[in-house]
Give the backbone structure.
Amino acid sequence: MAGVQRIRIIGGSARGRTIHTQSTDRVRPTPAALREALANILRGRLAGARVLDLCAGFGTVGLELLSQGAAAAVFIEKDARTADVIRRNLTELDFDDRAEVWTNPAESGVGRLATEGREFEWIFVDPPYDIGLATKLLERLARYPQVIAEGGQVIVQHSRREALPETEGPLKRYRERQTGDTLLSFYEVTTP
């Protein structure tokens, strides 16, 4: 990993504060425009929510959602050095008492959450683009829908070149939002 980049929190209690990332070809922080669009969509629905930031990278989305009112967050990032950056940011923003950082592959992390009986109102999935992992993680969440709280939603960030299914098990896409080359696909649990 090369030099350090600093990104600002857009809104909420930590608005304007910077978070640390590091230059790397493997991890791309979610751009400010996309975080702002997401925060605007979720505004008014974050208070007290539990958030899962899956394939968290540097945790920019989960940190933003904590700043804007989420009660708690779990960050799952398989790279230990990248996970350490999330921990540093949590400490500096005084969010560490409201968050956990797991160093797991995302797929096994979902299974572990299900085993532990954990559930989340907002699940944000941001895997590396164009390698099919977005679809695999959607399948994994469909296999363990108990991690999605009643009324909870799954938001998948992916390249517009990577088509995701309209439905996956009990998950149904109800909205898409495009910013540049990136799509946010919103899924909810449907009941038969």
User: Anything to note?
Assistant: The mean pLDDT is 89.
